[in-house]
Design brief:
By secondary structure, the protein is mainly alpha-helical. The protein has helices at residues 3-17, 23-39, 52-65, 77-105, 128-143, 148-151, 162-169, 177-183, 188-213; strands at residues 107-108, 114-115, 153-154, 157-161. It has a two-stranded antiparallel ribbon. 20% of the residues are buried.
Length: 217
Amino acid sequence: MDELDEHLRQLVAQACAAPPESVERKQMLQSIHQQVMHSGRLWQKEKSKPYYADALQDMWVYCFQHLEEYDPQVNQVITWLNDRFGRNLRNYGDRNYRQRIRQVASVETEDGQIRDPVDGLVAPPDVEPVLDMWNVILDWVRADSDGTLRQTCFKNRPEINAQVLLLQQLPPHTVAWDTIAARFNLSAADARYLPQWYSRHCNRLLRQFGKRRGYIE
């Protein structure tokens, strides 16, 4: 446990002990926010995305409203924040993808009006392309025809492999990292490292598949 995390844990504990709308709690929250932002240890990979700031703001709002959910026995404070932040980024990314699909598919009518081709469909069409994409991805993960996902294992734990983790992290039913850590009886250190391992290995495999299918450039 590093010095910053120990200090953040103390601030979280003090904030939880203070009355919800008290000056003391607000001061603790402000201190947490300042120190975490200054640390530079929040997700940076998608900082160029237009929705990065919105996802970050949503993370702070949620985590400060649910501060009592933080379990110091499972995660470091910044790991807990990054779990929520990463989930928000995925949700915004999905929403952005659906919007781009609609923009690309829009057509101009004879009278010069831009018509969304999904307007006349009965089903909620704005989610259909994404649902189709996720169904293809889920089929690929479940089948793992070449065994690559099952062979990509976390440390020496074959039961914690890329296939298992992807099935628990892909929308719409994402599982919290602390729940996964508890399910596999991970140590505190391994529980902190697992989201990083997932980002490095599972997301890489997911990106490779997405490029092969033409979902991403």
